[in-house]
Request: fold
Amino acid sequence: MFRQKTVADKVRENLLGIIVLLILALLPMRANDFLLDTLVRTYIFVILAVTLDFFSGTTGYLNLGHSFIFGLSAYLTGILYVYLKIPTEIAILGAGLLGTFGSLALLLPSLRVRGVYFAILSLLYPIIFIGIVTTQPFSLYLGGEGGLRIKQLFLDIARKLPPTERLAFLHNAYYYLSFILMVASFIVLYKLAYNEFGFKLRSIGQDEELSEAAGVNTTNMKIKGFLLSAVFASYAGALYAGMRPPITVDFVNTGSILLPTLTAMIVGGAGTIIGPAIAAFLLTLLYQYLWGLVGLWRTVAYMIILLAFVLIRPQGIFFDIYLRIRRLVDKVIG
Amino acid sequence: MIMLKVESVTKRFGGLVALRNVSMSVNKNEIFGIIGPNGSGKTTLFNVISGVLRPDEGKVIFEDKDITHMRPSDRVKLGIARTFQTIRVFPYMPVYWNVMVTASSVYSDSRIAKARVSWALTITGLLGEAGELAGKLTPYKLKMLEFARCLVANPKLIMLDEPFAGLSPEEIERLIGIILKLRENGLTFIIIEHKLKYLMRIADRIMALSLGEKMAEGKPDEVARHPKVIEAYIGVT
Reply:
């Protein structure tokens, strides 16, 4: 029971994940630019799904303002670049950190309320944010509807390369950056979600009063859990802003940012981390490729598929499928 | 030596006075029983002592320290553990984690926390179910799980809210055995119980509440003979 695990044990346990990550890491050697581009977007959504799940899936505090954290850091990147003349690469690093603490603006006032009231309160944040950004006088400084223009990430390096290699360089660089951020967020949050930290968060979700009476400082845990969720979501926003300028209100949009994230969490299996990650990955790709299959009917087809998933298995179909595959793999390798 | 002191506590819910000027003190290594009809304020008193509720007036003092405004989780770390009247566990978490959540909050060293969990699960006979979801346990095992959660925090004072409710006579005897054993090892208990037959047997002192006020306090047989207690329970004098 208390035997120390060897490296071989760990590889065997995580074989499935290692294989998947290796394939994704080697993908740029064979994939076309469109796929790489799609995957960058996909990875960002995986980060959003995993971060939302880490806080909301475990504690039961449904954060409907998740896109606020993402968009806040995106705008902070733009502000650092435009007004402080900080290069995009460094602006991203600073904005991710600032955005993490800025996101406390959402959490702290909401600590006083529970359940559906927290959800409603958090939902207001992206709306307020969009209102500020698009209304004078702030719209004059924050680019209004047209957005904040910043120099694309790594553009200076790309310009030093021969013209034929520039685009490939940027595609590969963006791919690996978002890939690394995704892997890092996933591993950190997955580990935490299944150790003492994660179970304290889960205890809050199951019975907050009991959790406190059982010795968990619930306020403290909610803040820590939220900050850990926010730091990765925030860096995802800052990075995506650097890769896809200009920075517009699309970064904060509840419909285009929160909705895919939230549905990934639900059909993935809330609180499982890996389920929402798989769901976000497959659903974002599905949405992209549905265009080729059904054209203008894409959104309708996508929503019907989601509905079917929820109806078939309300607790999350992707975590179930993952468990089955895992059991199969475990059987094969003994 | 006095371990816990409640000093003229009053708690109101809107117009209803749930506790009116209630004082009590519990000695170290004592089993202190609280009885009273439904709605007499027993559970409210527990909530005030464990910190779930803050009193409107009065003080709670634990080992000479004023804890009236302390968070419940900090009181657990000081050594006050409790169970609830209706069984409360984290149903979708394994038994092990139900207990580990408390252990890892109390001990910063995870090796000590793990050792404490194994110990608490052994004493309560739950080691075999450690990996099962708490929601799937039988009522007796659920009570044991609550008990394990209390014990794992290395408490000085354990407060049990109707521990014998819903248990068979044999199960009650087993639980009494554990309680007496732990008391021998230096623990202090406050027990709310309606099954007076059992409480009278193990309690050193008993306090009777009625409508939020203290009616009587003393040795079990003195309280049982107290005319006000008989009136409150049976309704005649």
